[in-house]
Every structure is written in structure tokens, then in C-alpha cells.
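[job 0417] fold request received: Orotidine 5'-phosphate decarboxylase
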Amino acid sequence: MSLDRLIEGIVRTQNPAVVGLDPTLDYIPGFLKEPFLAEFDDPMEGAAAAFLEYNKRIIDAIYDIVPAVKPQAAYYEALGWQGVRALCETIRYAKGKGMFVITDGKRNDIGSTMKAYASAHLGTFGAAGKQAEPFGGDALTVNGYLGTDGIAPLLEVCDERDRGIFVLVKTSNPSSGEVQDKLCGERTVYQMMGDLCETWGGEHLGKYGYSAVGAVVGATYPEQLQELRLRLPHTFFLVPGYGAQGGSAAGIAGAFDERGLGAVVNSSRAVLTAWKKEGCDERDFAGAARREALRMKEDLAAVNKAIHI
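[job 0417] inference complete; emitting C-alpha cells
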């Protein structure tokens, strides 16, 4: 099961962290981006080339200490087909380094359309007797608010291709409570969605007790994070909101089980722009990213000391 591989990576690195690869031109130092922008007449093509080279250097700096990366599809789609190509190549490069890749697309639909999303991001495309992976991610973030009709097509591909999903449950943004905290009978909406994750994952359990159906639960709501960890014993969490959005290591402590498993914590901007915060030479941006990733690892270790299977 796909999330078993993520868990094994967390144990191997002793680090329950994922780095979000969400580049913008402002994050990329001038010495790296300016030659690409000058080379191509199309600014999207130049930016996409800069994104890819930047991502590769970040991956090279962290792959041995961080088990996973999470590229957010929107940053690449903003550059058209050139950016989508950079996303594909980023995923392949990260996987080539042994990293687990969570594609952050928050996709949602039903029927043949959801099957197409599933095939694109987690599955294969076949023609003339040949098969290829369009994107090749290990997991995909999804929106579950169309119910089982939007999840079942994904689970078919998860079983066939050893992939996983992370369903939006209690997100880290300030206005999430406008919908997710509302009562639906005796349960909040986020509790109801979390319970559905347990149900959807019931027949897709891995060898470490967690299913192929994970949940997105924000670090900015530590009480709900702890509550859901107890409520959803078979659901692995993707935890955004650490660092730049205000979530702390202390607030994340409740996301982990007694083995130090149960969650992977995302940091994007803090790692990608560490060179700016440090004020170091821009040519050392990847070194600064590694130093920030190590700082984050130590921060998480302070509240989650023993990680084991």
C-alpha cells in the first residue's frame, strides 16, 4: 500500500516532514532564473525551466533527510503546458531520488471525469498496446464533498497502482470553520468527513495499520488535530500550516500515534525561501533549504522523539 512506503521513508529518515515544492519566480535567486528568462521569448517557458532547475537543486539538497515532497499543481498550471511539463519532470526527478511524491491538486468530480483525474495523477494512459504514466505521483490530495462517487474511482487506481489519497477534512485556512465546523446532526462537518475517510479506507489497509485514504488536517487547529487522531485510528494525516501559517511543533504533537507515526507535516515557503531569511549568498539557496529542513526535523523531534514501525 502506497502510504506504507511513505511510513517507511519517515522511519528511515526519522523525519515526519514533507517539503512543498511551490515555486514562484520571487523565490528563485537571480543567478538561476535570469538566464532562463533571457533564453526564451515565451516568459512561461523561461519560468518553467527555472522552476524545474530550482526544484532539482532543492531535491538534491534534501532527499536524504526528508522523505517526501508535495508539489502544488496550481503553481505549475499557471505557466500553461510548459509549467505542467515542469511538474511532470519534477515528480520524476524526486521519485528517482527515492522520495515519496504527494501531488497537491485537490481534485474532485464523479464518474468518468474522476476516473480521468485518477488516471492522470495516479495511474497510466494506454494506447496502441503501450502504457505510460502521465504524472506518476504516489498520492493525490482530493476534495471529498461529492461523496463516495468522487472517491471510488480513485480507490480503484490506488489498488491497481499502489497509490494513495489525502482527503480534505479540517483545513488550515482561517475561514475553514465557516463550513467544516458546522454541525450536521451530532457531528461537525469535519468529523463527518473524517469518519468517511475511515469508511473509505476500511478495505484498503496497509501493513502498518493505516489505509490508502489519508486526511488533510491543519496544524493551525491543534485541538481538532488531536481529536481526529483519536477518532480516526486508520487514517494517516497530511498536516499543512506548520511554520509560515502559524502552526507550531507543539501544536502538531497530537497528530502522532504511540509509534511516532500517523502524520507527515508540510513546510513549503520556509524551506524554499530559507536563503532570504538567512541572508546568505543566493548561490547557497539549496544549502539554506537543507539547513531549514534540518531545523524543522529537530523541531518536530522535540515533540515526537521515537519513530518506529
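[job 0417] notes: The chain has a mean pLDDT of 96. The chain is about 45% helix and 15% strand.
[job 0417] exit 0
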